[in-house]
Design a protein that fits this description.
Blueprint: E1 3-6, H1 12-23, E2 27-32, E3 46-50, H2 56-70, E4 77-80, H3 97-123, E5 130-134, H4 138-141, H5 147-166, E6 173-179, H6 190-198, H7 203-228, H8 232-241, E7 251-254, H9 259-268, H10 271-281
Parallel strand pairs: 1-2, 1-4, 2-3, 4-5, 5-6, 6-7
Amino acid sequence: MPTAFITGAAVGQGNMLAKKLANKGYKVFAGVLPGAETDLKSSDNITVVEQNVAEFDSVRESARVVKQALGDTPLDVVMNVAGVANIATGTIEGMNLEELDLLFRINTFGQAAVCQAFLPMVRAAGKRGKILNFGSGAVVANPPVAGSYNMSKHAVHGLTMTLRLELAPWGTQVTSIWPGAVFTGMTEGAREATEKNWVKQPQAVQDAYAPYLKEGICERLPDTIEKLGNTPDYVTDEVIKLLDKARLKPFYLIGKKDAAPLGPMAKWLPNSVFEAIIRKSYNIPAAS
C-alpha cells in the first residue's frame, strides 16, 4: 500500500487530496492544525495527525508519530499544501511586517521544516519518493499588493529546486505546484477581503497608491477570480495525476484559464511585454 503525508488537510485542497488518495488505496497521514474544525476522521486508510506547520516542534512531533506508525515502511509522498494568503497583504510600503513573519512561518519555513523532518522516510522510498511543494501561479504573475505572498511562494520554489539537486542520488522526485485561483476558503469573498485588506494599510500609503492600484486590486482582481478561477476538484485531480509520472518537472502550472496560459507567455514574450500585460490587467499606468 503506497503511503502519503499531506499538510493542511483540515479543509480545502489538502482535505480533498487526503480523501482522494485514500480512495485510490493510499495509506494517508493527514496533517491537521490542532483544534481546527475538519470532517476528516481516522479510519483504515486515513490517520489524522496533529500538526502546526508554523511551529517546528509540532512538525518534528508529527514526523515522529508517522515514523512510529510506519516502522520500517517508507513514506512515498509528501504534499506540502498548508498555506495562507490573506495576512500581511498590502503594498510593500504598507504591509505589516509582524504579519509578514507569520506568513513566512506558515508558507515557507513550514514547508522547509516538513521536508527536513520527513525526508529520512521519503529517501527510504528511493525512486518512488515524491515531494510536491505547493506554490502559486503568483510566482509567474507577481500580482501587486500581494508582495508578501509572492515572496513566500518564490522562496518555496527555491526550496524545490535545491531539493531536486540534493535528492537526485536517491531518485526522489520534487516539484512545485503552481495553481491559479482556486475556489476554496482562501479566495472566498475575494471582493470583501481585498477591500478589507486595502484599508489595513496606513492612510498615507492608501492615499498615495489608491489612484493607481485600488481599482485593479479591489475590483478587477475579484472579477478575474470569479471568471477564471478553478474548482478544487479539478486542481486536486490534476495534482494526483502527477503521482503516476516517473519523472517530475520542476513546476506545474495548474489552471485551465488563468495559470496554464501564463507559462508560455512568460517563456516566449520579452520580459517588458509580459510585465506590461500584467500591469494592464490591473490598469496600472506607467510613468509618463
